[in-house]
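Here we describe the complex-level prediction in full. Unlike the single-chain runs in Section 2.1, the two entities below were treated as one system.
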Amino acid sequence: MTDKTTSLQPSALAYVPFVSVDDMMKNVHAIGVEAFIRGLAEYIEQDFLRWESFDKKPRIPAHAPQGVIELMPTSDGKTFGFKYVNGHPGNTQDGRQTVTGFGVLADLSNGYPVLFTEMTILTALRTAATSALAAKYLAPERSRTMAVIGNGAQSDFQCLGFKALLGITEIRAYDIDPAASVRLARNLAGSGLNVTICKSPEDAIEGAQIITTVTADKRCNTILTDNMVGAGVHINAVGGDCPGKTELHKDILLRSDIFVEFPPQTRIEGEIQQLDADSPVTELWQVYSGQLPGRTSRDQITLFDSVGFAIEDFAALRFLKDLLPRTGHYSKLDLLADPDDPRDLFGMLIRSKEQGNGAAA
Amino acid sequence: MTDKTTSLQPSALAYVPFVSVDDMMKNVHAIGVEAFIRGLAEYIEQDFLRWESFDKKPRIPAHAPQGVIELMPTSDGKTFGFKYVNGHPGNTQDGRQTVTGFGVLADLSNGYPVLFTEMTILTALRTAATSALAAKYLAPERSRTMAVIGNGAQSDFQCLGFKALLGITEIRAYDIDPAASVRLARNLAGSGLNVTICKSPEDAIEGAQIITTVTADKRCNTILTDNMVGAGVHINAVGGDCPGKTELHKDILLRSDIFVEFPPQTRIEGEIQQLDADSPVTELWQVYSGQLPGRTSRDQITLFDSVGFAIEDFAALRFLKDLLPRTGHYSKLDLLADPDDPRDLFGMLIRSKEQGNGAAA
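The structure predicted for the assembly as a whole is:
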């Protein structure tokens, strides 16, 4: 009370580091997109290696006719993280994103948030990192060519992720909308990737060791039919990620060895919603830890049935938090009430009025 | 692409209104603490009146030895809201708040957040509004004197809430730590409330029509014993709010008509955790809607077993959102990636580098 002016300045405890969209782009450019994805993949692999230390909850959804908002929390017992994410397929009609998100990392020992960040861009990057990481264990050795079927907002990130982690050099792009493929080729110009725009899915998969499907239709679709998929390829199935939304013909699934993030979630959201509830799948964390094999033969068809899991977001939040001191690209939000005397919240409120805050209205 | 500089300015869609701790205090002072609590009580009552339109989920907790972090989501089918809140009893030892929080309101039709706000102060205010609203239906007519047992951070807000909604004029304050009562009396000086500091709980409840218990100990305690509580009073039990934390002797519960927010939650967290799982309780929303009576006789002991429920936070977020255009006390966060072409997130990222964002590192 002796120095009221000073006491009204929020202390360091009041502030939470905040990464805006603009900050996120600056952080990506500070180290480069490919290095950023490599960093994310490292953190994701680290967290998959300690899989059993995580509290794995299902997503908590709120539904409307137009779409869904989900909270995706997880914790390793020391740190808590969650992502807020929406999915609204009709959003692009009025200029909004189909999927946006933000996330929070917090210290579970005192409950205080330690990072608040946009996660639309970060999710796009972590999704690519997750796919490329899985392919490191599953794709044929010396894969150089990837077919990319569906050339929307996630496709650029997938291409760069596979370049960064596997050394892919050739992209064979197909989209039902040719303008989407032109956009992808333009965005990747100068990246070191050769992009060939293809006239059909059959054309796109010609000579590809990896087939990435990343279409956006919210319905059961058949992007790939059984006769299109030859022996020995790796399929990176990214687009099917909610009930009623799949991309692959069931017969392909029956010929493939299927790898998933978290079976209880993938059985509801992934391609394998088409299979019986006890169909065999392999959990990726067991592959990364060496408990189970990844690719075992040249002719095997491997399939990563990607849906996106909370631990990947947790790893992405950790990576970003560790990057920030190096880049400085964040601001500080006055988010936490921090009275001089923690038992005197009301006293902070009335002193703020004495200091003239009331006059501002 | 014709005007790159312009296209890099985030559009209106990118921004989410943000209420910092400082903004929150300014918003409170802009209309006054009592009017703010009255406004909150109105919105809470409105939302309790449409109780059945809400998706009522249990809290989603993450536990550590030191405390808990909880997400509290709810939705009315059109709007989604959630609160992040922690509870860490040992936090005051290093100058942190025991409970802090923040919250988000979002449009469920497109998934976009419409408000991001601190909720430490807002929760303190809505807890007081919730108690005072319940007392409007349950306390004896023309109540003027309230005993307040436990004079910590929530007690000031309770006193002002009961003044604003019920016309309480006399506060009889008791705390195991006399300094806490002195602090309360000092904070309420000039509020129009007469505060009498009492030497014992027995002394405090002398002549009180309402007894508020709001102690902070995280264990089963007996702030009130059966012989202390006379006929006709209303007990506002705020402090017992988690498993293993109660304030009242079981015999008081057995003599009282008990009113609760949401029975499945209160049976775990409230005073009634001491009773059988099928002990009779009345849901407040049914009292507010006139389906069930509140106080029915002069001698009846009524008891509001407060634990705090997500719909109260939802109502508080709605109230704040509606207040902001009047006060202007908020800023705008660049939280949502908003590319010119919603399908071209990566294009936004690379164009931001062309504009020199990369050089900033």
